[in-house]
Task: inverse folding
């Protein structure tokens, strides 16, 4: 038997017969194709947070393994008529080129939903060569294969590649490209759904921000008194700029509300407003909260954490109770205000912060500076635009409007139709000194709404501290007579108001006789 012709096959260690070499090449190509599919699956699954990067890496690996060139994914735009370049490893930047439905090879595949094989690029007159620049010899030595990317039987894009002619059977190459397009189609669908969800969330976020901005804008803050009108004017003056604001005032006067109004009236309203309560954290926790920390920076730092300064990038950082800063934190905060730079705890990498700073305190920072508890240079840095909120006792003209506002809020929340607040209840609120300011007023109205019946808040629905003047409450804290008299005055006064001063109608409303109603009204000074 004559010796069979032998040749060297790539990958084999010795010369083997021609027929065996043919089978050897078949096995090698099948192994390459399986490896290619494995690579694509791994790359697509390896970038869960950046799906586009997974497609790009998969195409790069295909070009390395299979000697393909210019692998390109084109996806359908929102209009459903044009293809745009989504991924192409050979391109450093994605071009703005578009293929219309039916235009060129890609447009034809989009329109027909069928793959297209160009045996030699230079011989195809309809090949537009719009995306990649090919030399003449490349057009002669390469075939072009384009397959559709299909989701739910709808063509959403194309996958194309330049295939060296010497690789042989182009139908097999097209089959492999078709399998890969199916894998990319699943990824494209997930990306489309994620983008649609992100777009919906963004639109909802903007809508809520606009509504919140309308509610918190200076023109919508409750304040008719002269002191509050001056505050609203200063908010309108400072909001458009980026300068640092220091809000001072007693606890409960609404400093955070003012900070929100400044933010949502500024050019940073579309970015985050991040709040930090400096009094709620000790020195080490506050530093980590503000600047973030690296993994292992201290016991319990099991992973890297971004600080509130980074979270507020582009927006506003509100530092409530800044008078509680330690000396070390004051030094670091001074650098942020001067240079807009900081480092995370446990890191030497400098981070630049584009953040507006709004501070608030109920303490006398000037006195703290004189006693050495607060740095003078930091005080000057945060006191660029001081804004003082008056206590509620100095803006009594706003008490009724605020009370109506809170009564409406808690009435809706508790399912009660609060129609009005009685005159004795209003008088009690106007005569009270409100040490807890607006916060105490809000709590008082919530208490009253819980007890209120028939849509009216009476004086006896208010907390005990508002049942009588403070001096009388101290002298007779448990006086039954004074409590009964206050209740009777409240009920009769409200009944007379509802009945336009008609004592007989008021008596019927109170389920008593006109004689008793008139006697009680005169006794309480409600009638002459």
Result:
């Amino acid at each position: 038997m004559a010796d069979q012709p032998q040749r060297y096959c790539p990958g084999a260690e010795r010369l083997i017969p021609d027929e065996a070499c043919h089978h050897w090449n078949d096995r090698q190509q099948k192994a390459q194709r399986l490896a290619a599919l494995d690579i694509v699956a791994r790359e697509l699954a390896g970038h869960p947070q950046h799906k586009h990067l997974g497609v790009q890496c998969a195409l790069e690996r295909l070009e390395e393994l299979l000697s393909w060139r210019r692998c390109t994914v084109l996806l359908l735009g929102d209009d459903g008529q044009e293809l745009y370049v989504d991924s192409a490893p050979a391109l450093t930047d994605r071009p703005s080129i578009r293929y219309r439905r039916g235009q060129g090879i890609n447009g034809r595949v989009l329109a027909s939903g069928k793959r297209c094989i160009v045996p030699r690029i230079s011989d195809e007159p309809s090949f537009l060569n719009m995306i990649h620049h090919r030399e003449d010899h490349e057009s002669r030595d390469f075939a072009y294969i384009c397959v559709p990317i299909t989701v739910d039987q709808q063509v959403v894009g194309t996958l194309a590649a330049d295939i060296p002619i010497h690789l042989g059977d182009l139908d097999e190459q097209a089959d492999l490209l078709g399998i890969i397009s199916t894998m990319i189609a699943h990824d494209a669908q997930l990306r489309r759904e994620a983008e649609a969800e992100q777009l919906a969330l963004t639109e909802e976020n903007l809508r809520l921000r606009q509504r919140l901005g309308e509610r918190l804008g200076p023109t919508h803050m409750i304040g008719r008194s002269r002191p509050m009108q001056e505050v609203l004017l200063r908010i309108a003056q400072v909001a458009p700029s980026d300068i640092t604001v220091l809000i001072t005032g007693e606890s409960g006067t609404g400093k955070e509300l003012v900070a929100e109004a400044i933010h949502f009236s500024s050019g940073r309203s579309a970015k985050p407003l991040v709040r930090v309560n400096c009094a709620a954290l000790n020195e080490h926790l506050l530093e980590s909260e503000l600047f973030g920390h690296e993994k292992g920076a201290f016991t319990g730092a099991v992973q890297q954490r971004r600080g509130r300064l980074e979270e507020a990038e582009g927006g506003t950082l509100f530092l409530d109770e800044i008078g509680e800063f330690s000396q070390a934190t004051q030094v670091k905060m001074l650098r942020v205000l001067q240079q807009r730079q900081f480092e995370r705890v446990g890191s030497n990498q400098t981070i630049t912060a584009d953040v507006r700073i709004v501070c608030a305190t109920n303490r006398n920072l000037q006195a703290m500076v004189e006693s050495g508890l607060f740095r003078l240079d930091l005080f000057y840095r945060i006191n660029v635009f001081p804004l003082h909120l008056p206590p509620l006792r100095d803006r009594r003209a706003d008490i009724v409007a605020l009370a109506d506002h809170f009564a409406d809020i808690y009435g809706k929340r508790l399912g009660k139709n609060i129609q009005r607040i009685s005159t004795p209840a209003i008088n009690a609120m106007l005569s009270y000194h409100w040490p807890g300011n607006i916060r105490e007023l809000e709590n008082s109205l919530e208490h009253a709404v819980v007890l209120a019946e028939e849509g009216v808040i009476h004086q006896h629905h208010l907390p005990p501290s508002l049942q009588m003047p403070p001096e009388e409450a101290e002298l007779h804290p448990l006086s039954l007579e004074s409590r009964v008299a206050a209740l009777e005055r409240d009920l009769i006064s409200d009944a007379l108001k509802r009945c336009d001063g008609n004592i007989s109608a008021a008596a019927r409303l109170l389920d008593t006789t006109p004689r008793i109603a008139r006697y009680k009204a005169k006794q309480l000074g409600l009638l002459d």
The chain has three domains: 6-194, 217-390, 395-523.
